[in-house]
Design goal:
This protein has 218 residues and is an alpha+beta fold. It contains seven helices and ten strands. The structure holds zinc ion (2 copies).
Length: 218
């Protein structure tokens, strides 16, 4: 299956972009908006591709530089506005029967203003909870090239995490992870246990606060 096959119909993110006026920033190929499931975290944004690709890994590499630029800007605006560390992540898309922490299969980075060491609980969970046939590999990476490589082989999916100190990690997995896995880990770590599922807990109040605060900041 290729991106082309998946182009129509596109998923909820593109519809959000077209129908609701909640975009805080837009470049040629990306837009930035508050996430629906903010979990009470003001300034929690998504960077989404305008065209439908099923994840950063499924996006042609010619877009990587623009995504880095949009990420730099978004990270800076969020960090300065909320005087906070910023964590960035993506749940990789479904690849065959593997799910990289299943969220929406459309390229989107989560930008979250929290001081949270996301890789530590992730690594611990993998160490403690996996069966012998489950394969995973945590690697330090730079850029997004490694994610494309993982996705291209169609043998596994991935989690992508950029920590507050900008160190980037990919966790390659050959088994299906729970839905919105990294959001679950963060919700658990921040004591917001029941709020991780954006489908069940849309947080319009926080979205509005984020929009009010970030208007004109980009
Ligand atoms: Zn889509
Ligand atoms: Zn997601």
């Amino acid at each position: 299956m290729t991106n082309k096959d998946l182009k129509e119909p596109c998923c909820a993110l593109r519809k959000e972009f077209e129908s609701n006026n909640i975009t805080v920033y837009e470049s040629d190929n990306f837009f930035v908006m508050p996430t629906l499931g903010s979990m009470g975290i003001e300034g929690y944004l998504l960077i989404c591709s305008k065209e439908h690709f099923i994840g950063v890994g499924g996006m042609p590499e010619k877009y990587h530089r623009e995504l880095e630029e949009v990420l730099d800007l978004t990270r800076r605006v969020v960090s300065e506005t909320y005087k906070s560390d910023v964590v960035v992540f993506e749940h990789g898309p479904r690849v065959g029967c593997f799910r990289g922490g299943g969220c929406l299969d459309h390229t989107h980075l989560h930008i979250m203003p929290v001081a949270f060491n996301l890789m530590e609980p992730v690594a611990l969970r993998f160490l403690n909870a996996l069966s012998i046939k489950d394969y995973y590999k945590i690697e330090r990476i730079s850029g997004f090239g490694k994610i494309s490589d993982i996705f291209e082989k169609q043998q596994s999916s991935y989690l992508f995490v950029e920590m507050p100190d900008r160190k980037r990690y990919t966790t390659e997995v050959n088994f299906a992870l729970p839905s919105q896995y990294l959001r679950q880990v963060i919700a658990h770590g921040l004591g917001k246990k029941d709020s991780w599922n954006w489908k069940e807990n849309p947080d319009y109040e926080t979205i509005q606060k984020t929009l009010d605060r970030l208007k004109g900041k980009f």
